[in-house]
Amino acid sequence: MENSKHIVVVGAGFGGLRTVQKLCKDPVEITLVDRTNHHLFQPLLYQVATSALAPGDIAMPARGIFKRNKNVHVRMGEVVDVDKEAKQIHMENGQPIPYDYLILAPGSRHSYFGNDSWEEFAPGLKTLSDALEIRERILMSFEKAEREPDPEKRKRHETFVVVGGGPTGVELAGTIAEISTKTMREDYEHVDLDLLEIILVEGQSRILNTYDKTLSEKAARDLEKMGVKVMRNSMVTDVNERGVRIKVRESDIPDDTIAGQEFRVDAAANGQSSDTKEVFIETGTVIWGAGNAASPLLRTLDVPLEKDGRLRVDADLSVPGHPEIFVIGDAARQMNPDGIETPAIAPGAIQHGDHVARVIRADMAGKQRPEFAYFDKGSMATIGRARAIAQIRDWKFSGFFAWILWSVVHVFFLIGFRNRFRVMAEWFWFYLTFRGGSRLITRKRMDYEPALQDQE
């Protein structure tokens, strides 16, 4: 295969992995590069963050996936630059890797809309490291509540704020509500459910706003039945070591109290309209799920990017002016001729990977490149135990049936039989007992808030 094409794929997510899987039996050489050594099933990442699943249940080493494909070479490391003229990428150690075709599937990271200092106090959820960080913050909140004799101070540890009413935020808020009222009540004798608050903050008029309005409203009602307080039309204006500040329309303030106290108007806030209030919620656990930004690697292409850092690709998913480079998955923005944009979700990335493989095969066969067209297979989101919504074209489902459908689809796409078997076993056990399988704290975190303890 000395004269075969060398294909470099950056990113072992859904798009990158799918591309390699489709081309690994062709007469090509493939190098798969990722900053981690595994493929991560991101749709279930929130279950690691909430202790329902262990990291190994939703991740598989990339080398293990392609161990039988001798033409696939896996490299762990971070790509820092793309040299379009020399047709090579550069790793963080300066090592160049030449390519004939380059597929960039670097994914995305959470965006704080220019307020990057908030990340220290409100971690997002994109990687296994993020999930473990959030898991430990949640568990440590209950540990601190358990040893705190003062109810007012304990209230802060039993308040959880999730920012962002998309699928990630909804799934996190619902699961935290479940484990708090069931599992943690049994594990921690001094946890007071009367002090417990789970608050979901959404800047738009409704959560899950990409779904049909009826499904969105059903999801909100389900969350509220589970004890989650949903704040709509609410914008976060600050996050610090003591909590989160939120600007909200007075008409969208919930009927009851937030964080155990009446809504407090911040007298120092400037420029507020007559129907807008600003509240500060004291909490030690804020989780961010409100926005995404494309990988900064795309900037090294030196081509125009969208405001969120994504790249608008040509009809065949290639970079304008560089047919040998493709951008797929969350990093790409592509519009069908009929105006349908590929959503930044796993099915879109998988279809991108399938298409790039077809394009490369067409090139090698001397045929015309096909254009990409996204096929919408529907969307699903889970709210909690036996609660979910699903929208498949004109069909809409909710409740237990939607949850079963969600479960089957997600298990089907897991890589490896052992992963599928373990996840099904864990879900079955959790369904019967409400007890997740991985409630471990692996780092000492009692000193997580030194500034706050000094003030207290």
Quote the average pLDDT: 88
CATH class bucket of the domain at 116-290: Alpha Beta
Give me the CATH architecture of the domain at 116-290, please. 3-Layer(bba) Sandwich
- In percent terms, what proportion of residues is strand? 15-25%
Describe the global form.
Answer: globular
- Would you identify the regions where 5 or more consecutive residues have pLDDT less than 50? 259-270, 448-456
Major β-sheet profile: 6 strands, mixed
What fold name stands as the CATH topology of the domain at 116-290?
FAD/NAD(P)-binding domain
The total count of helices amounts to: 12
Helix/strand/pairing category: alpha/beta
> How many beta-strand elements?
25
Kindly provide the radius of gyration, computed on alpha-carbon positions and rounded to a whole number of angstroms.
23 Å
Distance between the termini: 68 Å
Helix % is: 25-40%
Q: What strand line-up does the widest sheet have?
A: 5-2-1-9-21-20
Brief synopsis:
29% of the residues lie in helices and 25% in strands. The protein has helices at residues 14-23, 45-49, 62-65, 128-147, 151-157, 167-181, 183-187, 213-225, 346-364, 400-412, 417-433, 450-455, and strands at 5-10, 28-34, 38-40, 59-61, 72-76, 79-83, 88-91, 96-98, 101-104, 108-110, 159-163, 197-201, 228-231, 234-240, 243-249, 276-282, 285-288, 292-294, 311-312, 318-319, 322-327, 332-333, 379-384, 387-392, 395-398.
